[in-house]
Amino acid sequence: MKMRNALLLTLLLANILQAKAQTLKGTLTEHKGQTITLTGFNYYKAFDVDKTVADSLGNFSLNYPKNYKGMGILKTQDNSSLVIVLKKATTQITGTHLKDAASLQFINSIENNQFVTYAKAYTQGKQAYSAWRYLQPKYTNLETLKAEKKVLETIDKEVERLEQVPANAIKLIPENSYLHWFLPLQTLVKDMPETIHKYTENLPKNIQQFRSIDFSHPNFKTSGLFKELIEGHYFLLENMGQNLDSVYTQMNTSTAYLIKSLQKNDSLLNTVSKTLFIYFEKRSLYPAAAHLATQMLSRNQGVLSTSLANTMQKYKDLKVGAIAPEIQLDATTTLSSLKKPVLLVFGESGCTHCKKEALELVSYYDTWQAKKNIAVVYISLDTDKQAFKTAYGNAPWQTYCNFKGYETQAAKDYFVNATPTYMLLDKDLKILVHPKSLAQVDAWVHYKL
Prior knowledge:
The chain has 15 helices and 13 strands. With 449 residues, the protein is of the alpha+beta class. The strands form three sheets. The chain has a five-stranded mixed β-sheet, covered by helices on one side. Strands 4-1-7-8 form a four-stranded mixed β-sheet.
């Protein structure tokens, strides 16, 4: 009796869950027997929503949450993929193979068919646009073609028409639909790399488009565009072909706009700030990182996690060009008394990365000493005296430790919350760079110091 009740309960729960889910069904004949995965989005994160194996005829069924409305990616075992709109309670796709776009049809999904139609129009339009743009300067500059005024006039008109193709295609889609919101942003993501490499005259337009976006719009959560749009914009600015001062001015303006746009969503603002901060660090865009830190720290502190607040405080107080805090290394030696360039290292014997990079540091040390007379000051955050002695007893550089761990005053002054942490200083303690690796330090030693 108990087993029967348990079975009934299981079936009931299954029915309830099924009722709360939306379904993507499909028949893809050339994907028979393959694993089919549906991927969804949560701002920066992509995650597998459901997974199944297509039967011998290529039939499959995938479920996704009832409240999920946005974009997804259908992936097959042979590494094929298709971006789709997930909105209907039941959507069905038929065809042979995901790479055979002509065979794909959506049943009960007007927006997916509109999406496919737009994608074809966009791709074909871009191909034609590239061809006409290639001809345009030929008929403008080449002596043998300059006389063909009517041809040039035709080319100019066709270029102008093709530039309007995406916008005109979007006008045909109802304003209240998800695609009407999504497509202009996806188009901007696709256009930015071309702007950098081919059509630099579109830079002002692309920049203004970014600064007109409402990043707090709820549709962003499941769009899959968030990371590409933000990082693509800053990559555009980084490669806009202007001097660094102008680039950082533009970046700082966009950062201020982004923060303002997200000011009513503390959780998302924290996530965006952290991700953008990491992006700036990875690309050595330190002034942009410092500006972001200053802007965020001037807001309510509750927006930032403790770890992120500490990291940003470091960039605010210890930005490139600032004077680094003094450190009393021992009873008679201070950092400033060394009177030479210093690579300041915070590490600890129990840190795997510290051990690995200490060996790398040994390989650089003699060359740095010979070329630039650089002092390496290694401040250990160890709390065990024997562990410290075993790890650093034979180190060729100056090593200091007061066995207070992260409570070491120098660690607090330099906002150290992870090891290894590096900072390169000149002889007057001016901060030159916050290196992410010893290879970056080596590049500075050879080419900039």
